[in-house]
Each structure stands twice: as C-alpha cells, then as structure tokens.
Amino acid sequence: MFIRRYWFLAVPVTAFLVLTFLWPLVSILVTTVYSPGKGFFLDRYVKFFSDEFYRSIFWRTVELGLIVTLACILMGYPISFHLSHLKERRKAVLLALVVFPLLTNSVVRTYSWMVVLGRNGFVNSLLQRLEIVSNPIPILYTPFAVAIGLIHLFLPLMILSLTSAMENMDPSLIEAAKSLGASEMRAFVKVVVPLTLPGLVVGSVLVFTGSTTAYVTPHMLGGSRVMTLATLLYQKAMVVFDWATATTVAAVSVLVTFAVVWSFNAISRRMGVRA
C-alpha cells in the first residue's frame, strides 16, 4: 500500500540508475552489433571467438571464475556452519574478522600476496628451509597465484551469504536427522545444504561475477602471462587504443555475467529456491 501510494519517490533513483548504468551498458552492447551505415552485424564477435588467443583468455577467465567459486563454497560452508552455532558475542567477533579484509584496499591485499608468493617470498623460503625444494619455484604470475588472490578477495562474500542463510535455519532439524540415523555428513548434505541454497546461489553469483570481472588481482598476480578479460580490456583500451576490440571484450564480459546470473536463477527456480 505504501509503495503504491508513494511510487513517485522512486523516480529520481530510477532515473539516476538508467542514465548512469543502464544507458551506457546498452550503448556498449548496441555498438558491437549495429552501426547506422552498416546495419546489424556480428563481425566483432566472430573475430573474437575465432581468434585462438582471445578464445583462450575467455576460457581462462571462465575457468578461474568456476575454480574460485567452488573453492569459496568448499571453504565457506564449514566456516559459516561453525559461525552459525556460536554465541552472539563470539560470533560478532569472528564475523568482524571475516568482514575486516573487505575494509582493506584490494591493491594492498593483492600486494601482500606478491610478497608471500614471490621468488624470495615466505612460501619459497619455507619450502627451501624444509628442504622440499632446492631452488625457488615459480608461483607468482601463474593461474594458481591469481586463484589464491581471488579466493582471498571474495571468500568473505560467500561466508556472509551462507551465514545469513544458516541463521534462518532451525537447528533442531539437524538433531532430528541424526536421531533418525543420519551421520554428521549425511545430515549436512541432506538438511543443511538444501535449506541454505538461497545463500549459496547469492554467494556463488557474487563470487563468480566478481572474480571474472576483477582487474587489480589478475593484473598484479598474473601479469601478462595470465591474462583475463578484464586485463585484456585494459590493454586494448589504454595501451594499444583498439577501442573496437575493447568494446567487444567489455560486451563479452557483460554477456557472461548476465548468462551466469540467469543460469543460477534458472537452477534455483527449478529447485524451488528464490535467490
């Protein structure tokens, strides 16, 4: 009733979002498939996906997104499950520690990983001191380093999404499953996971879209050896000034994001979950 009566209050915000977000986004997508003199065309997309170099960057970006999302799910579930069973004061302290990395600039966090994973960093020094390796191994500027940095960057989002979902779950359901003969793992898979699917869907969307569109972490930890769509976009737009290819890369990134969000929503609807 309140929304219907005061709908006009949403007009300024809606107009602002349309002018600053939706209009530029639509303009980018339109320029990649239409021009007044040429009409509709798909030449840029055909060129992009027929080029092995661009295609490898595209699949590397998607692969990194999937790996980071899966890793965040596997680490986020036990952490969130533990947090949801703590007393309020202890939970507040640990949640503050989870949120604290989000308050730190991504450049600072990524640079710390450069120090840890570098040739003379902590990891290589420890491996050499334990005599596991005789010479420093290349960790920095590899897909592994980029994945580690992205997991550190987006794991808090997964934990917060799953924790909020678990707080709305009745703990007695787990005890009921155990009383019927289910093991700890079976009760977790059959009871906890289905009831926390809304948080899982939201967290997965945030992590995947964030990791596939991140620029700072892949640029600093991957360099030119591990290029993603975001770093390719920067190179084409700001280094070689190839605006046509840069626009196509931006459009591909947007379409991938839309496809992922649509897929997660479709899966959640089929499972009876609304994200």
CATH superfamily: MetI-like
Q: How many strand elements?
A: 2
How far apart the termini lie comes to: 24 Å
What about the largest sheet?
A: 2 strands, antiparallel
The level 1 CATH classification is: Mainly Alpha
String of helices and strands:
HHEEHHHHHHHHHHHH
Q: What proportion of the residues is helical, as a percent range?
A: over 70%
* CATH architecture annotation: Orthogonal Bundle
So how many helices? 14
The number of domains is 1
In short:
This protein is mainly α and 275 residues long. The protein is built from 14 helices and two strands; from the N terminus they run ααββαααααααααααα.
Please characterize this protein's 3D structure.
This protein has helices at residues 2-5, 11-31, 43-50, 52-84, 88-99, 106-117, 122-129, 143-167, 172-179, 184-195, 197-213, 216-222, 229-239, 243-270, and strands at residues 34-35, 39-40. It is mainly alpha-helical. The chain has one domain (39-270): MetI-like fold. Strands 1-2 form a two-stranded antiparallel sheet. Helix 6 runs parallel beside helix 12 (216-222) and helix 9 (172-179) runs antiparallel to helix 10. The longest helix has 33 residues, at 52-84.
